[in-house]
Amino acid sequence: MTRVRGVVARGARHCETNTLGVLLRHEGIDLSEPMLFGLGSGLSFLYWDSRNMGFPFLGGRVKPFELTRNLATRLGLELAVKETTSPRRAWENVTAPIDAGRPVGLQLDSYHLEYFTAKVHFGGHIVAMCGYDDHDAHLVDTGRQGEPVSTSRVSLARARAARGPMTARHRSFTLTVAGKPPRPREHVVPAITACAAAFLDPPIANLGYRGIEKAARLVPTWFQRTDDPRRDLSQVAFLMEEGGTGGALFRNLYRDFLAECAELLDDSRLRTGHGLYAEAASLWTEVAALIARAGGTGDARCLEEAGTVLRDVSRLEREAMRTLRRLGE
Q1: pTM > 0.85: yes or no
Q2: Where does the Butirosin biosynthesis protein H N-terminal domain start and stop, copy by copy (predicted)?
């Protein structure tokens, strides 16, 4: 068996920040999961619905791998990305750095991973690979999936070759510190203001605070979109709280990031933003509970109440991001 030495798993909550943590700790950079999420300007919102979708999707972060690109650019890290349509070359792209003693990040469809507990297609799942043998690939996934895990090389090949929403062409990547180790304190303000600007000025109405307003209007109509409310509403609520978001649709992670930043920088705007996101996070958890209750009971009033809470969330997050954007002044 070939295995990278010195890989440290921490049982993180979100797949992409979990993988970034594994890769960066191997490079001697040890940052908390909220700090990785925040420095990558990871927070967002998306209300996604289309004709070919069975049910609407609520997303709370930027699209898969954008967080990684943001983080690498901001911290001056060397990000080497490889993609290919060839399964043979894709395997070589992974084994070469592992043979050289470096863990590798992979983007794939989690549905095909044998250890995965939730059998749902998600092409934006990201894991760290740290070893392999003749039969299995050895990975580090989130704490929910069991941290160090294994899946057969056949299943890994299927996961990497999958096509569909958010998938990539056998994407693999490594991170390298090009010079002196970065100092997070120097990068928190640009990370926060960039995130705030994107959230406040989204290009379409499905994104940012405008997307939350749209969700507030449409969530109360969801019973008209499903023939199985128990299945569809329960799944939405599960993904909001348990689906690798860290809880509250990633708002817990961003709240904790802002708390860390407030310890690094003495700024009242930062403290205000943290307080508002702490309040928003609790409301997102309330929304998830209302959606789950609607699915379990069939009571449309729960969705009406969820829409009312979402209007409050949109206002809170808009106020928070306006305050945080002024950090750049």
Answers
A1: yes
A2: 14-142
